[in-house]
Amino acid sequence: MQTELAGTDIVILGINRMGSESQNPAACEGKDIPWLQDTPGVACWDLWEVTYRDVYIVGRDNELLGVFNLTENDLGDPADYAALKAMLENAAGAP
Q1: Confidence band for 2, pLDDT divided at 50, 70 and 90
Q2: pLDDT-derived band of residue 1, with 50, 70 and 90 as boundaries?
Q3: HSE of 29 in the Cβ direction (CA atoms, 13 Å)?
């Protein structure tokens, strides 16, 4: 199942870093967000220089539109939540 933001074409998925495969069952249990496993052949965490809990916002042509870190930004804070929501809506071209 893909998780989509209502009224947009946003698809959300997670990518686990290499070496953390043992965390996959807990990351997936009871959740609907697709969860992928990074591999040596792809190494997207290295290519993208990912920091733990980064949200990468990628456009339709796989261009990087923004990065939002969930450790530095608490989604329990209405301002941080609104900032991420706005980034996602802007990426989707929402009005």
Answers
A1: very low
A2: very low
A3: 5
Contact call for residues 68 and 82 (beta carbons, < 8 A): no
Reported pTM: 0.80
Break the chain into its structural domains and give their ranges. 14-92
CA separation for the pair 74, 40 (Å, rounded): 31
E strands within the chain? 14-16, 35-37, 54-58, 64-69
Beta bridge partners, 27, equal: none
Give residue-wise pLDDT tens across range 28-49: 999 988 999 999 999 999 999 9
Residue 38: closest CA among 26, 58, 57, 20 = 20
Other residues' Cβ atoms within 10 Å of the Cβ of residue 38: 20
How many other C-beta atoms lie within 10 A of the C-beta of residue 40? 7
Tokens 């009224």 — which residue? 7
